[in-house]
Design goal:
The complex is a heterodimer of chains A (463) and B (97). Chain A has 463 residues and is of the alpha/beta class. In chain A, 58% of the residues lie in helices and 7% in strands. Chain A has helices at residues 5-23, 30-48, 59-79, 85-114, 120-147, 161-181, 186-204, 212-233, 237-260, 265-270, 294-302, 313-318, 321-333, 352-359, 370-374, 395-398, 449-461; strands spanning 306-311, 337-342, 367-369, 382-386, 417-422, 442-446. Classes of the chains: A alpha/beta (463), B mainly alpha (97). The interface between A and B is large, with 114 and 85 residues.
Chain lengths: 463, 97
Amino acid sequence: MNQNWIPVGYLLAAISFILALKLMKSPVTARHGNWLAAGGMFIAIALTFFDEGIARENFGWIIGAILVGAALSILPSRSVPMTGMPQMVALLNGLGGGAVALVSLVEFIRQSSIGADWPIVPLVTTVLSAIIGCISFAGSLIAFGKLQEVLPSRAIVFPGQKAVNLVLLASVAALAVLIVAGKPLVVLFAALVVVSLIVGVSIVIPIGGADMPVVISLLNSFTGTAAGLAGFVLANTALLIGGGLVGASGLILTIEMCRAMNRSLENVIFGAFGAQSAAAGSLAEGKTVRNYSVEDAAIIFSNADSVIIVPGYGMAVAQAQHVLKELMTKLQARGIDVKFAIHPVAGRMPGHMNVLLAEADVPYELLYDLDDINTMFPETDVALVVGANDVVNPAARSDPSSQIYGMPILDVDKAKTCIVIKRSMNTGFAGIENELFYLPNTVMVFGDAKGVIAKLNTAIDSY
Amino acid sequence: MTLLALFTVFVLAVFVGLEVIAKVPQTLHTPLMSATNAIHGVILVGGILVLGSADSLAAHLLGFAAVAFGTMNVLGGFIVTDRMLEMFRKKPRSKGG
């Protein structure tokens, strides 16, 4: 085949990626966008087989590797439950980062075995894509471990951690300079890979579970950037464009998430936010909460005309989205107006709540963003908080000394009654007390979200 | 292809990415992250190229892993995204799907 067709195929793939991202703007066309990108990807991959640089005797290796990858990925990605999606995306992102690092490593080994003069730009981009790919690989695996709760989801901190991280980063920089300015030795490159992997672990380890959305988004951007840099190494436009697009998108998403939490990226990465839980305490003393039974809560609903449901991470953990949908149907059948309020950082990924509620067939017209719903709380009879905590903490509005001061929150305290379903009085991921629970118009129903709502569904029928 | 041409392509891709993505509604952020995750699986192309030109056992083994990882990133990424987006269908559907 004429080699000129390959870049044309890459161009088609690039167009499909860009159009796909455009189609992702609406829930109606998003699925077509995904298929379009998959089609473009297929063209790019299929045409690569015709590249004249590929030795015939290596086809067996390539096909074998693709079959192994397919065998290992198709079944798990088809069967993973919706609640497990965040860690699945983290894992897949890590594999992508690992692939980039391996590509750089193999290319480095090949070039150094030829002993040819290695021009500065490919050398620098090989080193950079290896570093970033390794950080993304190791970091994503840690994020996966935290979300899957194989590792503790809280921030893991130890004395001198910052110093250790600085030494690690300095070692990466030193090795990179040695390779680029000194001798491009394979042993140095191998050391660079190992230290970069450790950096990936050490960056993500001190970040608490609540900040994992930001981390996954950032590492997604890292993998994209690394893949784009590998495009310089192999002079390949498919990698440059695909990687560049994702590098940019991941960064935008990351910044948007940080903005929603009123925090800087530096604070998320270096703040060890989740570890500072000791600071609170004082608020709880001498105050009492109103602890209601499920039946009492059901009576509140029977007198309501409007309800806003605020789902949080607790709903995801308990997989309560289906019983919540049932509650919605029961309330609607009684002529009660039901809306859902989605905080930008509720759950563990942006849009996490939307995906779970969509899984339970909650119409997305009923899902409201923060700005739209906050004006409605004062006219609402009941705000039902299901496993959300920090995103409904009024301290973010009123207490300048609070760690979350300034973060936009859902104003559930302004509803006539606020019902909070929670497993215990434990603090949220941010580790701070929530004065909402002590307000006179707040009632607490303790228990697992799924269990409580299931009982609520039964209780509502009898009132 | 000259270095400057490669650089031009990369920079333009970054700008297109910023422009296109800035307008996605929050509802679709998780599927979007997942879709972009699948798109960086394009590194599979790089994996195929290095494994295709491998001439030592080390290069073969490392390249094999690169292609397998890349395949998982691409296939898993698109499948997972499709499953998420399937949830956004407007019409009520049967339970348990």
